[in-house]
Amino acid sequence: MIREQPTTESAISINHLTVSYGPVPALLDVTVDIPKGKLVGIIGPNGSGKSTLIKAMLGFVKPDLGEVRIFGREAAAAKGMVAYVPQRGAVDWDFPITVREVATMGRYGHRRWWQDMSRRDLQIADQALAKVRMTEFASRQIGQLSGGQQQRVFLARALAQDAEILLLDEPFSGVDAATENAILEVLRETRQQGRTLCVVHHDLSTAAEYFDYLILLKQRMFGFGTPEQILEPQLLCDVYEGNMKVFAELSGTRSAGDRSP
Amino acid sequence: MNSLVEWLTDLQLEQGHLIRPIIVGTLISLVCSVVGCFIVLRRMSFLADAIAHAMLAGVIGGYLIMKIVFGREAHLVGMLAGAILAGILTVALIGFITRVSRIKQDTAIGIMYTGIFGLGALAVSIKSIGGYVHIDITHYIIGNVLAVTNEELWLLAVVSSLVLCSVILFFRPLQITSFDPVMAASIGIPVLAVDYLLTACTSLVVVSGVRVAGVILVVALIITPAASAYLLTDRLNRMVLLSAFIGILGYWLGFGLTIAIGSSPGPTIVVTMTLIFLLILLLAPRYGILADWIRRSSLVPQEVMEDVLGAIVRSTGNVMAIPQVLQAVTAPNRRVQRAIRLLARRNLLECEADQVRLTETGQAEATRLVRAHRLWETYLAQTGEASERIHEKAHQLEHISDQQTVDYLDDKLGHPITDPHGTIIPVDSVQTSGQQDVKASMLRRGNRARIEQILPAANRLGLSVGSEITVLPRSVDGQTWNLKTDRGTAIALNHTEADALIVRPIPTDEDEGDAIPASDVS
Ligand SMILES: Nc1ncnc2c1ncn2[C@@H]1O[C@H](COP(=O)(O)OP(=O)(O)O)[C@@H](O)[C@H]1O
Ligand SMILES: [Mg+2]
Predict the structure, then answer these.
(1) Which atom of ligand 1 is nearest to the CA of A44?
(2) CA distance B235 to chain A (A)
(3) Where are chain B's structural domains?
């Protein structure tokens, strides 16, 4: 009798990706297949190339070698299939733009550049804002929001894009616990709809709880697998070079894991 | 204003050539300030300045090529093309240098534009070439809109419409690539092409603007109106419209001034625009200096209000003369007075003649503050904080402590009765007023209460729910609570047991040990 193997279609497949800004490569020979419909965490120390990996998946940085394929298509040709929530530091918060305008930006990819936004587009943008509970701030300039609210605006933009894949660069940084939970809730709901999410994450103590898979990165790939496979002391020691804080966090994870195996 | 217009019209009728500079200048100011919005938002001001300087070499190059190759003197289109090419070449070289080396952009800009500007200046300074160039270079260096010819007018009209159409047509791509180029790329907008479009537009407006203000000052026509508009609005489309309006207004006022005082038009217009900018910087409703100042001075920090309450309750209990309050609180007098008015409006105190009296709620609030302050002092003393810094630190902490923090602190310290100075830490009068249940550990000597609940840790005491207790003085350094039951038996409890006894205080007429001594200094 042949048991049917559930074929997990890969949403993003990265092959031998090498990216460099100057003489030193930011990413070196990264190869990974990210399955569809999963919530994937990307972890690694500062400057390990997490943001660069996200930008490569978006087709924004050109690889020196290798390629990124989105559902089998080249990243540069997969326009509009990937939505993006930038790192907070990468946004000009003084830009003259309101919350609703940012959310509406999520619909730009659905219209030709000369076409106006339709009423439907504006509706979708408003729905996305409602989903992250930002409706009452719709006409605020984005600089006049708290850190958590700012993250939610960009999350709304990504939702409005209605993309198959969502890439989030440190959405939980500078955010209070309540907002972190609210954002996580939306991310899980989005996964429920069969979307694939990649999230750059800093807090190792919550990584196991939040994500289906983890990517451990420091210039090279140090591992891809379930949180149990990745959050190994030996592996983390290699990557974080014996950083004290990391081990303190890790021991927290271990004991949490022991309680609920 | 009206008479100025009439006067200008008269002048124009007398001297037909004034109408041309007005039309040309209006067009130029319009496009310069529209494109300027994107330049300001992308922090490209220095680059625009570089393009302006580099175009001098382009003008001369274009002139020479037209003259040598085609044998045509002062050919406008040739010179324009040369200028634009020089601008784009400068940008390309700057991009190249930053890409292939560790030189940062500002330095690369500085090197390239001085180099190219120098090349142009060098070329005309050589006798054999200089004698060959029959154009007035000073026109390009400081500009002269009065000398504009019909041919130039038409050319500028075409250039302006081209730029304006591009900006309107590509507004959304320009907006998104300025705001978030990564996202723009991910939805298929050719970011590089849009960048080049903007560079081309910048070169075009610089070349046009040079007619008005010359290569040295032209960047002001581009960025000053845009920066002014940036201070006035939170939306890009409004910013573009406002910038255009401010640019044209600045040109008209500056041009009027030029005619009136007979100055050189370029500098006069630029100075006018700068003055408009400074005026807006001062008066802008949200981002202006004045608005900011008003906002800051009318804001009464919570701290000042709390300090007022604290000062009153510490002095005599609940009445204090206003001059004394002003003296006791370290903040500008006007701010303290505003704090008093605000507190009165919130019913925390009453003003009578020249003294203030705490209301009941005010007193409760003030007591809470004093309690937080003294608990923090106790805590800081225990953690070994230097004694001269304790008061100041506790003062900062008392303002940011919520109820939970204070309760936690109180429990952690074993519900102390006195602070390190020996003064009494008041109880939370809201909690012990009898409106809610509290732990028996919160009670002080003389308090009476009814037992509502007995948690397991207090089981061994043999007390029963519903019976009444009276609190006796604590013993063993305040670590043992002593109670008397209504049957007269005395019971000793440790901290854990006292916490496990949930009681409802019975209000008494007289609060023993709760009052804050008037002589208190902490
Ligand atoms: N635009 C850039 N130009 C030059 N170097 C860059 C640029 N962006 C990132 N880098 C370098 O690439 C490396 C990886 O950066 P990044 O992907 O931002 O790391 P992470 O997001 O993991 O902190 C770092 O060493 C950083 O200095
Ligand atoms: Mg990063």
Answers:
(1) 22
(2) 5
(3) 19-292, 302-358, 359-425, 435-508
